[in-house]
Structure formats: structure tokens, C-alpha cells
Specification:
The chain has 13 helices and 12 strands. Helix 5 packs parallel to helix 6, helix 7 packs parallel to helix 12 and helix 8 crosses helix 10. It is rod-shaped. The two termini are about 55 Å apart.
């Protein structure tokens, strides 16, 4: 911001200086030329009267006398000087091509423009700027021409005033203006940089403090100087930081209380659940001796105890992650064999839902250093979730790997995910459609635990889905423990949904 303000100030100031400089130089040039023109016309008028008086005494019959008088008059006019500075005098006698000139150098007479001579021949005093050769090279000069009234012949008097001194003065003034303009631009730029720094410094301080707050240094504050608008900004920022610090501390305290509550309740429920499990097992084993209504109640009790035990185990696992007590026990594992084992274990679950588990065949063995218990749990959760939402359509599982990473994808063709749900699907107890019944009796923590298992391996667990197109989950793990993932061997977004009879009926 400081650089942008400084550059903008310099450019604007430079533009203003250029415009003002051009206007100033134009005015000075015009004034110099006007003064020169007035002085030249006055001097030419005086010379005209003197030449007229000299030619009035000439014998019109003696041509040599006329020539001698013109030459003498030219020399006398040149010696008289005047307020317009250095000059040259030229006389023309006669009209048309027969006119003769009287000048110091013939090139001076040749430099008189014909346009100026035409105006003078019409009896009008006139002046013009032209380039003439005064014997030392071409220069720009102001030419003033006047007709000389005479009964002898047509006479023309021309004064040539070189403008070299004026050009030198104008160049000096131009150089002074340019240097002054550059100095002014530099000075204004320095002032703009200093002012911009005063304004930008609090912004930079706010950005630095914000970075520290984001890094967890919640006690850092901006320094308040004075009582101006910047001080108000610093005060408001500090108030905001104080409010955020209090709210974050409250949230951290609530989070710790929630984690501890979950951990304590889970552990406290373990003992009574064990007693209930023993009693439920006894009742379930003797259900054949009970009346039909009591036997059915015993079966329902056994199912709910199983579900309650699964929920309690998941809560205990979540509490271990929250406490940072989860430990990875890696070993070289064939991921294809692991997926096959999980598919065999979940075959009955898929059959009850009417879904077929299809594992992509082919490809080399994929061996990675992973914790097989945790990876099996992740794959089992993904497959059960796909079966739950697959609406009886096939569930496809694929495994691939390379030198650095291994990936497992689970694809279903069910209800899919809406926009934004791919990031929420791993939240605890989150459900894509709360109105749907949970046919498989999940706890709502499976995907959350799976995400934690993936992170514990240093891997990724990602989701993709489109409404009516199904969903795909991808687990990516490093081949060796501690390696950083940079890619995945399998794409997250699958190929377009093939149009089959099942999908066409659903649509």
C-alpha cells in the first residue's frame, strides 16, 4: 500500500508539473516573442523614417547616387542600434525580378520570404518568423518589412533580428523549470511516502497482530498512540481481539468439558453395560423357553444392547482421539487382501440391503505400512455407509498404489450428496437425510472415526457426491509411515454414471 500510494502521488504530481511546466514555458515564450516583436517594430519604424528622409534628397536621374545612398543608409541604420538587440538591414530597390538588394551578405537578402515581400509590396508593414543565413549559418530570426514611400522607385526596408539570444534564454528557463519540476516531484514523493508510512504502519501492525492471533497468541494487542482515527482503529481492533479471546477460551473450556464428559460417561457406562450384557445374553440363550411375546422382547433387548455397546465403543475411541491417546501400530499389510476380508465380513449386511459388493480385479499387490485394525475399520465403515445409502444398487470397491501412496475407493449409486455436504459428512452424528430411517443401526460416529484413523496414518479421507449420482469415498495412505502425501493413485471424482436399467428406473 505504501508503494502504491507513493507511486500514485509521484505520477499525479509529475502529470501536474508537466502540464503546469508546458503552460508556463508557452507563456514565457509568447511573452518574450511579444516583447521582441514590439521592440523590433518600433526600431523598424524609426529606421523607416530615417531611410525615407535620406532617399528624399537623392537625384532620381543618377542611378549610382541611389545605390550609394542605400548602402550608406544601411550602414548608418546598422550603426544606430536599437532596443531590439542585434540586427541586419536589407534594402530592396525595384519591383519583380529586376529588384536589386543591398545587404551585408547576399544570403541575407535571399533569406527574406516571398510571402513577407508580397505583403510589403502591397504597402503594409509586416513581420514574420523565418530561418535565414546571416553568414555564420542558418538561424531563426524575426523579419520586419516596411515599404519606403518614394517618387524615385519602389523601395523596401527589412530588419532581420536573430532570436538566438532569446532561444538561449528560453533554454535556460526551460532547464530551470525542468529541474525545479523534478525536485518538486521528488519532494512530493518523499512527503507522500512519509505520510503513507504513517497511515500504513497501523494497518501492518494490525495484520501482524492478526497473524499472531491466528497462530494462537491471543494475548497480543496493538499499541494505541494518540487519539486520532488510527488510534480509534487500534482500540477497536484490541476490543475485537479481547472479545475473540474470551469467546475462544469459553469454547475451549466447553470443548474440554464435553470431551471429559464423553470420556467419563463412556467409562462409567462400561461396568453397568457389562452387567446388562451378561443378563441379556442369558435371557437371549433361554428365549426358546419363554412365551412368544417375551422371546421377541428378549431378541429386541439383545439387538439394542449390541447397538449400545457399539455406540459406547465408538465414544471411547473418539475420547482417545480427543485426549491424544490414540496409538498407531503399523505393519506391512496387503491392502487387496484386507479389502477382500472386509467384503466377506460385510457380505451379509449388503445382502440384506440388496446390494452387491464389486471389487475391481487386476493390478499388482499393494503393500503399505499401516495399522490393519484401523484400516479395516475405515473400509468397513465406508462399505456399510455405501450400502446404507446405495438404495440396493451395486457398491464398487477399487484398490491401487504406486511407490509413494496407496488408495482405496468405495463407490455407490444411491442418493448422493448435495453441494457442501462432502465437507460435513465426516462430522459427528451428521446425517445426509435426517428423515431416512437407519436401516443398519449405525452410531453416527463411523465416518468421524474413519477420518481420525486416516489422519493418524498421515493420510486423506475425502468424499465426492452429486444428487442422484451417488457418492464416492477415497482413502489415501502413504506407503511408508511418515511420508508426506502429494497425490493419490485413484481419482476422487469417478467416471460419469453409466445409464443402466436400474438407474433409469430410479431417475
Amino acid at each position: 500500500m505504501q508503494l502504491r500510494v507513493t507511486v500514485t502521488t509521484v505520477l499525479l504530481c509529475g502529470g501536474v508539473v508537466v502540464v503546469i511546466g508546458l503552460i508556463l514555458l508557452t507563456q514565457i515564450r509568447d511573452q518574450i516573442l511579444q516583447v521582441k516583436t514590439r521592440a523590433a517594430i518600433a526600431q523598424a519604424s524609426n529606421g523607416l523614417r530615417y531611410a525615407e528622409a535620406q532617399l528624399a534628397a537623392v537625384d532620381p536621374i543618377n542611378g549610382d547616387d541611389v545605390r550609394t545612398t542605400l548602402d550608406r543608409t544601411r550602414l548608418q541604420l546598422a550603426e544606430r542600434g536599437g532596443p531590439a538587440g542585434r540586427f541586419e538591414v536589407v534594402f530592396f530597390a525595384g519591383a519583380g525580378e529586376d529588384a536589386t538588394s543591398v545587404a551585408t551578405v547576399s544570403s541575407i537578402a535571399l533569406g527574406v520570404p516571398e510571402e513577407l515581400r508580397d505583403d510589403v509590396r502591397e504597402g503594409v508593414q509586416s513581420y514574420q518568423l523565418a530561418t535565414v543565413d546571416l553568414g555564420s549559418g542558418p538561424v531563426t530570426a524575426l523579419l520586419v518589412g516596411s515599404p519606403i514611400p518614394s517618387n524615385i522607385d519602389d523601395f523596401e526596408l527589412y530588419y532581420l533580428f536573430p532570436l538566438d539570444q532569446e532561444a538561449t534564454s528560453l533554454a535556460l528557463i526551460q532547464g530551470t523549470v525542468v529541474l525545479s519540476g523534478l525536485a518538486l516531484v521528488v519532494l512530493v514523493g518523499a512527503i507522500g511516502a512519509a505520510v503513507a508510512r504513517l497511515v500504513v504502519r497501523p494497518v501492518r501492525d494490525a495484520a501482524r497482530i492478526a497473524e499472531r492471533l491466528a497462530a494462537g497468541r491471543l494475548a497480543d494487542r496493538m499499541q494505541v498512540r494518540g487519539e486520532d482515527d488510527l488510534a480509534v482503529l487500534a482500540t477497536s481492533f484490541n476490543d475485537m481481539a479481547e472479545s475473540l479471546q474470551q469467546q475462544i477460551r469459553q469454547l475451549e473450556q466447553l470443548s474440554r468439558l464435553q470431551q471429559r464428559f464423553t470420556s467419563d460417561v463412556s467409562h462409567e457406562l462400561r461396568t453397568p453395560l457389562t452387567t446388562v450384557r451378561m443378563a441379556a445374553d442369558l435371557l437371549y440363550a433361554a428365549r426358546d423357553d419363554f412365551p412368544a411375546a417375551v422371546a421377541r422382547s428378549t431378541e429386541l433387548l439383545q439387538a439394542e444392547v449390541n447397538r449400545f455397546e457399539a455406540l459406547l465403543n465408538d465414544l471411547l475411541e473418539i475420547s482417545r482421539y480427543d485426549a491424544g491417546a490414540a496409538v498407531l501400530d503399523p505393519e506391512p499389510t496387503d491392502l487387496r487382501s484386507l479389502v477382500d476380508r472386509v467384503c466377506v465380513a460385510t457380505h451379509s449386511v449388503a445382502a440384506r440391503q440388496g446390494s452387491e459388493l464389486v471389487v475391481a480385479a487386476g493390478g499388482p499387490r499393494v503393500v503399505a505400512d499401516v495399522d490393519p485394525r484401523r484400516v479395516e475399520r475405515v473400509v468397513r465403515n465406508l462399505i456399510v455407509n455405501a450400502v446404507e445409502h446405495g438404495e440396493g444398487l451395486p457398491v464398487e470397491i477399487a484398490v491401487a498404489g504406486d511407490e509413494h501412496a496407496a488408495a482405496i475407493t468405495v463407490r455407490d449409486y444411491g442418493i448422493g450428496l448435495k453441494a457442501g455436504e462432502a465437507a460435513q459428512v465426516f462430522s459427528r452424528f451428521w446425517r445426509a437425510d435426517p428423515s431416512r430411517s437407519k436401516g443398519l443401526g449405525g452410531t453416527g460416529l463411523g465416518l468421524s472415526i474413519s477420518l481420525e484413523d486416516a489422519h493418524l496414518h498421515g493420510g486423506w479421507l475425502q468424499a465426492w457426491g452429486e444428487p442422484g449420482q451417488g457418492a464416492q469415498f477415497r482413502l489415501t495412505l502413504p506407503i511408508h509411515v511418515g511420508e508426506e502425501l502429494t497425490h493419490s493413485p485413484l481419482p476422487l471424482v469417478p467416471d460419469p454414471l453409466p445409464v443402466t436399467a436400474a438407474t433409469a428406473d430410479r431417475r
